[in-house]
Design brief:
Strand content: 15-25%
CATH topology of the largest domain: Outer membrane efflux proteins (OEP)
CATH architecture of the largest domain: Up-down Bundle
Shape: elongated
Order of helices and strands: HEHHEEHHEHHHEEHH
Low-confidence stretches: 1-20
Number of strands: 6
Helix content: 55-70%
CATH class of the largest domain: Mainly Alpha
Distance between the termini: 44 Å
Number of helices: 10
Length: 448
């Protein structure tokens, strides 16, 4: 007997350790998503692009330096005639032939251009790039929040289905036990075949319900694997423990939502961009000053001519210059751009007020939804205790024959429904809490 107990203890430890190895905690799931999720990886790359764009090399503040070089080669065959000309002896002057007269030209140089002042346009364009980088960071954070919310929603759905599976497995075992008892009672003439058939029908119903839940659980686990960017057939267990953040902390987060909500923060950055757009447009009123410089080398090698020998001409050139341009009147284009930029700024202010109002509404709705679902969960916890006590007493009464199959089955169904509804209420309340955290901008700052 002692050996049997030791074997069971060993098997229990083995199964427990195996389950722990396959346990995918919420923290591990979030870490995997941050590392491998496709949407998050794309968002991070977008931030890298915005970071490159805000670099000083994309600002227009640096000069441009251009190198140029060239080479030319010519070969000429010439025949020069002197019609009517004679030499000092009166002999007609002969034709002059130049065969393979070669000439070369080489050049190399550097051209430097620098805008010293452009009416401060590039300064404010550079600041716009900085703001766009901050917006890309906020957008990436928003993508991460949405992905984590999706991840946890699926994670908790897996947890709910696992708990439902356990509840339905217990219900099926109770139904099978009832079927065996009905068969024994029928064999001893203490019940009818109708009791046996009713028990078998209920057991079959519970078996089908369990199979459907198991299939839905497998599908939902595949959904979670897709979010985690891993093999869709990877198997794991999830943590069904759910804890709720104290309401005092949630209220403090709500009070700071105006400075943490991502939608509001993005409108503020867009408002700053619109303000810089006005200043960029105004830069058209001011003059532009530019500097130029060049340094060049030229080599010209000419062939022998009819009257002069060939020469090699080398030239070095250094040139510096400055330019001033001032568009005194451009037909009103600058004035129009400034006016439109001001209107765009006013529109962005209106959008900011609208989003702030909508966010406040969404937070209030999310808070009341969370409180309502939390209250329902507390009620369902009590309902489970009540139905569990009722089922246990009904089971005792059924075994001694004081209640019918119908009454016992109803108690069994009531307990099953109470347990599954409690599971649903628990995870509904947690999801409502997650949505509230997202609206307050704190979803990535809490532990789950």
């Amino acid at each position: 007997m002692r050996k049997i107990i030791m074997i069971f203890m060993f098997l229990g430890v083995l199964f427990t350790s195996k389950a722990q190895e396959n346990l995918l905690s919420k923290e591990e799931a979030i870490s995997l998503a941050l590392e491998k999720n496709f949407g998050i990886l794309v968002a991070k790359n977008d931030v890298s692009i915005a970071d490159n764009n805000q670099n000083v090399m994309n600002s227009g503040f640096l000069p441009s330096l251009q190198g140029v070089a060239g080479a030319n080669y010519n070969r000429d065959d010439s025949n020069i005639e002197f019609p009517g000309q004679v030499d000092e002896n009166g002999v007609p002057r002969p034709d002059l032939e130049l065969i393979q007269a070669e000439s070369q030209r080489y050049n190399a140089g550097l051209n430097l251009n620098y805008t010293l002042f452009d009416g401060l346009g590039r300064l404010y364009n550079y600041k716009i790039l900085k703001e766009q980088y901050q917006i890309s960071e906020l957008q990436a954070k928003e993508t991460i929040q949405n992905t984590i919310l999706e991840l946890l929603s699926i994670y908790y759905e897996v947890a709910r289905l696992e708990e439902n599976q356990n509840v339905q497995q217990q219900t099926l075992e109770a139904s099978k036990d009832r079927t065996r008892r009905a068969e024994y009672s029928f064999d001893y003439g203490q019940s009818t075949m109708l009791d046996v058939l009713n028990a078998e029908v209920d057991a079959n119903t519970d078996s089908i319900t369990l199979l459907n839940t198991q299939q839905l659980l497998k599908n939902t686990k595949r959904d979670l694997n897709v979010v985690l960017n891993q093999n869709v057939d990877s198997t794991f267990e999830v943590d069904t423990l759910v804890t709720f953040i104290p309401q005092e902390e949630l209220l403090a987060m709500i009070d700071e939502a105006d400075i943490n909500n991502l939608a509001i923060l993005q409108t503020e950055r867009n408002l700053a961009i619109n303000e810089y757009d006005i200043k960029v447009s105004r830069s058209g009123y001011l003059p532009a000053v530019g500097l130029t410089g060049s340094y060049g080398w030229n080599l010209n090698q000419t062939a022998d001519g009819a009257f002069f020998p060939g020469v090699n001409n080398t030239n070095l050139n250094l040139a510096l210059g400055a330019s001033l341009s001032w568009n005194l009147f451009d037909g009103g284009s600058t004035i129009t751009r400034v006016r439109n930029a001001k209107i765009a700024y006013e529109n962005q202010e209106l959008i900011k007020k609208q989003i702030a109002l909508e966010v406040n509404r969404d937070i209030q709705n999310a808070w009341e939804t969370y409180q309502n679902r939390l209250a329902i969960y507390e009620i369902q916890e009590k309902a489970v205790i009540t139905n569990k006590n009722n089922f246990e007493r009904s089971e005792e009464q059924y075994r001694i024959g004081r209640i019918t199959n119908i009454v016992f089955r109803q108690a069994q169904i009531n307990l099953l429904n109470a347990q599954t509804i409690k599971n649903l209420a628990k995870y509904d309340a947690k999801l409502a809490e997650l949505q509230l955290l997202q609206l307050t901008g704190q979803l990535l700052n809490v532990n789950f």
